[in-house]
Amino acid sequence: MSNPFPASASQNYGADAAGLICGYLLGTDTPPQEVDSAQAAQWLASLQAGAAPADQFLWLHFNLSHAQAVRWMERHAHLPEAFFDALKDRSVSTRIERDDDTLIAVLNDAHFDFAFEPSDIATLWTSVAPHLMVTGRTRPLRSVDALRTTVRSGNAPCSSVALLAELMRTQASGLVDIVRGVTQRIDDVEDALLAGRLDHKRARLGVLRRLLVRLQRLLAPEPAALFRLLQHPPAWMGADDAQELRDSTEEFSVVLRDMQGLQERIKLLQEEIAASVQEANSRSLFVLTVVTVLALPINILAGLFGMNVGGVPLADNGHGFWIIVAVVAAFTAVAGWLALRGTRDQ
């Protein structure tokens, strides 16, 4: 199978020759042990031969932009075909599905250099078996890096499912930080709106709303797949692991509800800004209309008296100019009174 992701020299930084970013051998009573791709291949071979310890499992994290990553997984990891199909699938909505005795998870997370842009979201593909958890990404992601730090510090879960649940909890914590950042930006826009400084706040709100919509669309776990998994988990998954997975998805649900509330708040602010802009445009249009009405008498009289024809009235009168000025002023005053009276009647 060819690698569906294009290789990039900058993206390959930090991975070994097999595209492995990090690997850890974890167990119940043993501290985390960092392994490279050669050691991982040797351990997986012993696992296939039935010689690996039953209380240990391996976590391998790959850079899928590396040309050798998918080939190495096909050769040594013995992952189900559903995992490689998920890599090529265009649907990247968050989901956890069961394929025989393996869990296939597609998760979405923020980039490591997240800048509150809708495009700063990437996908993490995961395969979870009793003794092996494989994760792969094309861009550096926040949650995986935080999980890597947790494992390196010695606070690693005791099973592969617990490690997946910890990854989802870490992702939920990252989303909480994003929600807090969006809330702060919305507060700033709201304060500027109350102070009468509109500037380009509508564009900023539009970017934040698109970000929340994209996050909610990509991060909300598919309920049907999750319900089937929790109702019929694999035989090797313990009750405690299933409960941890259920709790981690509930944390997701809480964050997603907060995001939905922020979307409603942004919508109300956008409507308020639109109403303010429309009111300002209406005032400008009214002022323009009043000026046009006030200038109408003098324009009409100037046009009439400017015609080069005989019989122009008051042409021989010494006070003709002032008489015309008085007539124009009277007509202008009447037009202004009529325009302003219509405004007071509203």
Automatic annotation (TrEMBL):
Give one GO term, molecular function aspect.
magnesium ion transmembrane transporter activity
Annotated signal sequence range: none
Q: Which InterPro entries match?
A: CorA_cytoplasmic_dom (IPR045861), CorA_TM1_TM2 (IPR045863), MgTranspt_CorA/ZnTranspt_ZntB (IPR002523)
Q: Extract the coiled-coil ranges from the record.
A: 252-279
| Subcellular localization | Cell membrane
PANTHER family attached here? CORA FAMILY METAL ION TRANSPORTER (EUROFUNG), ZINC TRANSPORT PROTEIN ZNTB
Q: What is this protein called?
A: Zinc transporter
Organism the protein comes from: Acidovorax delafieldii
Source taxonomy lineage? Bacteria, Pseudomonadati, Pseudomonadota, Betaproteobacteria, Burkholderiales
